[in-house]
Amino acid sequence: MNLQAPLAQLKGLGPKSAEKFHKLGIYTIEDLVLYYPFRYEDFKVKSIFDLLDGEKAVITGTVVTPANVHYYGFKRNRLSFKLKQGEAVIAISFFNQPYLKDKIELGKEMAIFGKWDQAKSSMVGIKILIQAEADMQPVYHVAQGISQSAVIKAIKSAFDAGYIRELPENLPGILLEKYHLLDRQTAARAMHFPKDLAEYQQALRRIKFEELFYFQMHLQILRAENRSQTNGLAISYQKSKVTEKIQSLSFSLTNAQQQSLDDILSDMQSGAHMNRLLQGDVGSGKTIIASLAMYAAYTGGLQAALMVPTEILAEQHYDSLRALFPELSISLLTSGMKAAVKQAALSAIADGSVDMIVGTHALIQESVNYHKLGLVITDEQHRFGVKQRQLFREKGENPDVLMMSATPIPRTLAITAFGEMDVSVIDELPAGRKPIITRWVKHEQLDRVFSWLSQQVKQKAQIYIISPLIEESETLDLKNAVALEEEIKAYFAASAHVALMHGRMENEEKEAIMQAFKKGKIDILVSTTVIEVGVNVPNATIMIIMDADRFGLSQLHQLRGRVGRGDKQSYAILVANPKTNAGKKRMQIMTKTTDGFLLAEEDLKMRGSGEIFGIRQSGIPEFQVADIVEDYPILEEARKVAAQIVTDKDWRKDKRWNALVQNLKQKEILD
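Below the sequence we write its predicted structure tokens.
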């Protein structure tokens, strides 16, 4: 038996059926065996008196009224009947499942899985269970053309055929003993077919540890390699010149800024290779620290390059660097530049007549040759893929690397999650910066808000209005934004110039709109969430976010950070009628604090890691069962033991070390 065999070799599964499983990333029998459910439905029968409002549960009872199907609207219907449990009679409704009527017989004992409505003493049914079904049923991620039952049937077939016996153990025995973990074969079986809840929880604990341990092994190996590299640049920067430049600034650095700069300069001066993450809240002044680090590289006779995700941000940084260092030669490099201008920039970069370079991903193209590259900085590092960041690092002769992120992540989590990097945090705002005043209003108060906006437009204020977020639907996002733009235009008529920006636009079009907004040619910019992090429009002082309860705290905070960039008082207005307590709580927290790290902590508690470490903020892998926040204690323990193993010379001589490295390669974690 071969676990690496194509899925089509599994008994009862032909090539056509096997091909459907490719949508789920399942190509081999091993992929199938390790395709774990993301949750279990608890089908244990409960008494209605033990149920909480809104709880999903199974209840049993006797059918005491005939089933009726009531039709309303196009293809919409409700099947209803009553069930008696003890002395209680419960109303049951199934929506748009009229075919279930034949299964409901007067006097018949039935088990219904559904959602309990306490106020109405009723249940909205999800499915009718047969009594033979287990207390717990796995729920797998599926795709179009593949049902839950098809996944379960295929997995059962693989287990019945005995393929599980070929699954090798991938954790050292010493760790299984230390943490009382199930062996891999037992855990894999219990993930799919647990005897009971306790066994499933033990299996889950083992698989979570396995995922997080290998993640941490990867980070700790990278960290050890970075720290052991003596081929890093020891940049002999001129401390007096850097100090002089700091003193010439029109403001003083905050303590957090100074500490971060000290960390970076210390790394640059050492012979070890710098690999540091600089994270700070919106408006905390990361850019000036990055600029001073670039200046330090210049005083050491080396070039420095800053890569940002968009042309408008590149131009913004280029302008600010030229204002800060008028005595230096600074070059801009973007793919949108005219050929002759671009060629002149490339020649100047190659012959060393340029001191600093700012650009988009154009900085890592093959045609770019640096003269003496000492420092590379990636802004909004999550916007670039690992390969893009790696290409940037490989330019020049092993330059020092600084990455920046404006997504506040709680420090303890950042240190663990970005384990291969050193982390510096700027967690205080510059003195004199006016905090953004945040207000939460209901939809019924919009007239008053619009009336206030009219007054603000007359006073030359510029306004962002963010349309409601429809997750996973760019089409609906766009419809919402267009409808909102029409509403705003109708209200303001000729008194304000209104423009629309959305994700379907080409980059050039979006950048043209942002440039027009920066130049004051647009009064009100209606937009989806595509407004760039870091875009600096000092005159934009008002941010209106429609249906704000659809956004997470971190996202709301990032949007709010688009204003408050000048010396005028800025405002964020959250328009929302939240239906849940969690939604109301998010609105209340936003009005009470502008501290991004505090909000990040709250977001972690309320929404888990998705909002902070979601796809848009990638750089953290997506785990199959582990959650980087919920399972933080396991993550931290995995970090400690991985660090211990990687730094232990005896482990590296042991055959177990080779096995661990081989497993990392199989998981495609190490090249």
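The two ends are 28 Å apart (CA to CA).
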